[in-house]
Design goal:
binds magnesium ion, alpha/beta, 2 domains, binds adenosine-5'-triphosphate, 347 residues, Rossmann fold, four-stranded antiparallel sheet, Alpha-Beta Plaits
Length: 347
């Protein structure tokens, strides 16, 4: 659907050359929700602005569907851009125009009658659940409502792709959730392909199918969200994942020597992490029975990502050292990542 092939883009400011995007190749499939995550300055916005050529890459190709956008004339490009909607962190609405006029704006000069425009705008406002706000001005709306207007406006030309540059970064968590839910509905009901830029792993986790991690202008890791979460290869990816996982709490408890992690001889603290989508076995009760060990769950953090449980459990296992060793081997054979975080020693 969207092919970025060898995209590079530099800027020269004050005589200094900044390579914002370095040789990025990505393929975004039709109908998917694709996330791009990275810290500030990683080059995310520049890369996404290359998709609709708001930023012209220094080298590389942008292909949308069958068309190579980087080869089009200005006139052809204006036409092709109708297939790409975009929304931003700060909404970018026209403050002196009403909600209706904002949404109607992209429909101007397209040979539509007043009635046709009205019908289309009202349909879009209904889609984003703002039917009652057509005469309001942006200053009279909440952040979430403003973003809904921006989404309606971006959809006015029936685009095939919607680019979202930090679209929820200015919103509180609840409003973020409602906007993400709306994006998911648009993806499912209209089949629109969505590209989401964010610096929040929670956003990726909530709605993306695949994700690219960007650092210093490059894509350093890419894949299905579940796979990337379960098997992060890069330090930066691990850092992003840690921001959303409750399991990291165990390291604080260990460092503080909390009573929760105080051990008696014969006890070990184990961290079990699920790396595959097929964890359905009752693992803890199985090892407990099979290897004659007692398992006390200190805490667990398991969530559903892409219809599969992901996360892990921290347990205190108590038993003979060799039995615990056997249990660990058994778990590893089932592709559970096991780490011994603390050992209370032998009896
Ligand atoms: N128009 C521009 N002129 C000069 N430098 C630019 C321009 N746009 C981006 N840059 C530089 O390119 C690099 C990447 O910027 P970009 O905005 O793409 O990052 P980002 O990942 O979107 O960051 P953020 O999360 O802060 O939005 C930065 O070093 C930035 O200063
Ligand atoms: Mg940006």
């Amino acid at each position: 659907m969207i092919e970025l092939a060898g995209i590079s883009k530099s800027f020269v400011t004050k005589g200094k050359n900044v390579e914002a995007v370095k040789d990025v190749t990505l393929h975004i499939k039709e109908h998917e929700i694709y996330g791009i995550i990275g810290f500030s300055g990683a080059g995310k916005s520049t890369l996404v602005r290359c998709i609709n050529l708001l930023e012209r890459p220094d080298s590389g190709k942008v292909i949308l569907g069958e068309r190579e956008l980087t080869n089009l004339s200005d006139k052809e490009l204006r036409e092709a851009r109708k297939d790409i909607g975009m929304i931003f962190q700060h909404f970018n609405l026209f403050p002196s125009r009403t909600v209706f006029q904002n949404v109607a704006y992209p429909l101007k000069g397209r040979g539509l009658s007043k009635e046709e425009i009205k019908e289309k705008v009202l349909e879009l406002l209904k889609l984003v659940e703002l039917e009652d706000k057509e005469n309001a001005y942006p200053s009279q709306l909440s952040g979430g409502q403003k973003q809904r207007v921006a989404i309606a406006r971006a959809l006015a030309t029936d685009p095939k792709v919607l680019l979202c540059d930090e679209a929820t970064s200015a919103l509180d968590p609840q409003t973020t959730h409602s906007i993400l839910k709306l994006l998911k509905q648009l993806n499912q009901n209209l089949g629109i392909t969505i590209v989401i830029i964010t610096h929040e792993m929670a956003v990726i986790k909530e709605i993306c199918d695949r994700v690219a991690v960007m650092e210093h202008g490059k894509v350093v890791e890419e894949g299905e969200v579940f796979e990337v979460f379960a098997n992060p290869r890069q330090e930066i990816t691990k850092a992003f994942i840690n921001t959303t996982s409750a399991l990291r709490k165990i390291y604080d408890l260990l460092e503080e020597n909390s009573p929760v992690v105080a051990l008696k001889p014969g006890e070990k603290i184990l961290k079990l992490q699920y790396l595959e989508k097929s964890v359905s076995e009752a693992l803890i009760s199985t090892i407990s029975r099979k290897f004659n060990i007692d398992c006390n769950i200190i805490f667990a953090s398991i969530e559903i990502i892409g219809d599969a449980p992901l996360g892990g459990t921290i347990i205190i296992a108590q038993g003979k050292a060799e039995d615990i060793q056997e249990a660990i081997r058994y778990l590893k054979e089932r592709n559970i990542l096991v780490e011994v975080l603390k050992d209370g020693g032998n009896h």
